[in-house]
Amino acid sequence: MYKSLQEADLKSLKQHLQGQAAYDYVTTAIAAKRQVADYVNRLPVSERPRWITEYQLQGLVTLPEPAAQQLPPRPGIPNPDIADIDEQDVQSVINPGSMKVLQALAANYPDYIRIDGAWLDELCDAASHQDMTLRSNHHFYLSGGTQSGKSTLAGVIINMLQNLKARQL
């Protein structure tokens, strides 16, 4: 029995020493990598990318931020806080080929597809009711490709809802 206890103690000691050795190895490796990164940070900026890749120092070495690019203003739907929505501007954003398809669909399904200028006002009026039973719609779906105006339209809807809510108070 004494021998079994002694073996168990030795096994426990061995596991403890292995864990301590692994801990020491990892912390030494981390400290070494941090020292290398500190050294690379003192090198000229043009040399740093090479050493970042070679010694896998991503996140440890600083590189200068790229200069921010200013995009020129784009024409599109005006902000309702600045101006009323101009239907001509809205139509100029929509792809003319898509507009023909949309007009044909709207003619066939007038209860579901609206392309006249009042649909947005009606949508926001219906959505602004606090009592859900008075709403004629509960969901919105905006779809379109990149740079098609989805976020702009969402902003217009949000601003219109806020204006309606302010008028109701």
Question: What this model shows, in words?
Answer:
Helix 5 (119-127) packs across helix 6. By secondary structure, this protein is an all-alpha fold. It contains six helices and no strands.
Notable features of this structure?
169 residues; 56% helix
Q: Which ranges are low-confidence, i.e. pLDDT below 50, for 5 or more consecutive residues?
A: none
Structural class: mainly alpha
Number of helices: 6
Radius of gyration: 32 Å
Based on CA inertia axes, which overall geometry fits?
Answer: elongated
Q: How many runs of DSSP E, i.e. beta strands? A: 0
- Give the overall pLDDT as a whole number: 76
Helix content: 55-70%
N-to-C span: 85 Å
- In the residues, how many domains can be counted? 2
Strand residue percentage = under 5%
* Largest sheet features: none
Give a brief description.
This protein has 169 residues and is mostly helical.
Q: What's the helix and strand layout?
A:
Elements: H1 2-41, H2 48-54, H3 87-93, H4 96-108, H5 119-127, H6 150-168
